[in-house]
């Protein structure tokens, strides 16, 4: 699993390009959003997806002790940020963790303020 660089970018800063090495690949609108998405429970969920390589939401629910609707909501939210891929097939959904290690960038090195 590759390390994912994450950062905070307020909505008014979206027009400013942020590319280059070491720049975040995932942006959160606020520190509180980042804390909620990367909570201890959600990071544990990502590790559960990665380590035993769960094949279904039902299997992941059993491993995590969470109910499927709650789990599904969390995974869809993480999918929106690019942390998880939900592979849909005719019989169900297989979660795939795209990142389990995070480097958090709290300030822009180009910002002089």
From TrEMBL:
Gene3D superfamilies: Winged helix-like DNA-binding domain superfamily/Winged helix DNA-binding domain. Pfam families: HVO_A0114. Residues 1-25 are annotated as: Disordered. Transmembrane segments: none annotated. InterPro entries: WH-like_DNA-bd_sf, WH_DNA-bd_sf. It comes from the Bacteria. This is Putative transcriptional regulator.
């Amino acid at each position: 699993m590759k390390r994912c660089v994450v950062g905070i970018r307020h909505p008014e800063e979206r027009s400013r390009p942020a590319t280059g090495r070491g720049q975040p690949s995932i942006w959160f609108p606020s520190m509180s959003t980042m804390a909620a998405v990367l909570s201890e429970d959600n990071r544990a969920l990502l590790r559960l997806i990665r380590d035993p390589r769960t094949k279904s939401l039902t299997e992941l629910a059993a491993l995590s002790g969470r109910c499927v609707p709650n789990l599904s909501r969390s995974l869809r939210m993480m999918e929106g940020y690019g942390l998880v891929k939900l592979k849909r097939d005719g019989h169900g959904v297989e979660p795939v963790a795209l990142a389990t290690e995070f480097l958090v960038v709290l300030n822009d090195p180009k910002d002089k303020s």
